[in-house]
Structures are given as structure tokens and as C-alpha cells.
Write a structure and sequence with these properties.
Strand order of the largest sheet: 1-2-3-5-6-7-8-9
CATH topology: Lipocalin
Shape: elongated
CATH class: Mainly Beta
Number of helices: 2
């Protein structure tokens, strides 16, 4: 086989393989606590995420100090007392899109997905299995999910003095827009 043809095929294969990996450094996560005394909301736009559409591998890394609160004191308590972000700077998720092989990642459309893997917060890892959607539009994959976590599962303790201010179960909303990586 001609060297030029072989090189051309290798280049085409590498472009094809790189199009199977998608990522973002500006994902969005919101958490919400609804409690009798007050509601607490924080948002974070410092969310790294990557998806390999061939294998279904799906990962997240969230900078804990990136969560922004309405009140500075809430943010301080969150970082210093609850998640100890100096000691545990990131939350991570490493898992798989279970039905990735049934999705045509090259065509526009919305797909219900199930993601399973390990969620680590404050140094504690738990198996999670959550549902969400991937909307593919013009080569961009928009992933969304809403799920709940129990603070006690991640050794986040709520002092008795503020037990009516913070819910035991927190709503988490994830919204990422993943674009193809080019090597």
C-alpha cells in the first residue's frame, strides 16, 4: 500500500477517534436546600466534564470553592465547616453512560440516559445511579440531570443550632455543554 494512503488513513482515523471525546471546563452545577427556616442555593460554573462516546466513560471534577452563594457567610460556612474545601478541594464523579452504545452521537436528537459510577464528596465515595438527558445538536452534546444526595452519606454534619436552616437531602442540577476535543 502506498505510504501516502496509509498516512491519510491514519490521519482520518485519528480525527475520527478525537471526535469521540467531548469535554467542557465551564459546566454548571446548582444545589438547592429547602428547609423550614430558609432555602439555600449555590451555583458553580467551574465544572470540568468529559465524555467518551465510544466507551460511555463520563467524568466530572467540581471545584468546591467555586460554589457561589447569595450570602458571603453561607459560602464561608459551606467551605470551612461543611465540605472542608481546603482539605477536599474537589468533588468528582467517574462512571459510565449505561446506554451509550444505543445512541447515535452523530445525529441531532434528545436521548434519555442512565449514568452509573462513583461520586466522591469530602473524601467519601458512594455508588450512584442517576437518570438524565443528552441533547445532541450540531455536534454539541448538552447533558442535564437532576438528582438528590443525602448530606449524611458524605459525612456532612449539620449543627443542631442550624438544623432547620439546612435540608438533610440536597437537590443537585447538572447542565453541561460538551464539545468535541481536537487533538
Amino acid at each position: 500500500m502506498n505510504k501516502t494512503i496509509v498516512i491519510g488513513l491514519l490521519m482520518l482515523l485519528s480525527v475520527q477517534l478525537s471526535a469521540q471525546r467531548f469535554a467542557t471546563k465551564t459546566g454548571f452545577i446548582r444545589f438547592y436546600s429547602e428547609a423550614p427556616a430558609e432555602n439555600i442555593e449555590a451555583v458553580n460554573r467551574q465544572v470540568n466534564s468529559a465524555l467518551d462516546t465510544q466507551t460511555g466513560d463520563f467524568v466530572f471534577r467540581v471545584l468546591m470553592k467555586g460554589f457561589q452563594f447569595e450570602k458571603a457567610l453561607m459560602q464561608e460556612h459551606f467551605n470551612e465547616n461543611y465540605v472542608e474545601s481546603s482539605k477536599f478541594p474537589n468533588a468528582t464523579f467517574s462512571g459510565k453512560v449505561l446506554n451509550a452504545d444505543r445512541i447515535d452521537w452523530t445525529k441531532n436528537g434528545t436521548h434519555q440516559v442512565e449514568v452509573s459510577g462513583d461520586l466522591t464528596i469530602k473524601g467519601i465515595t458512594r455508588k450512584v445511579n442517576e437518570k438524565g438527558t443528552f441533547e445532541i445538536k450540531d455536534g454539541v452534546i448538552n447533558g442535564k440531570s437532576k438528582f438528590y444526595i443525602k448530606l449524611a452519606d458524605y459525612d456532612i454534619k449539620i449543627p443542631k443550632a442550624v438544623v432547620k436552616n439546612i435540608a438533610e437531602t440536597i437537590e443537585i442540577n447538572v447542565d453541561v455543554s460538551l464539545t468535541a476535543l481536537n487533538n
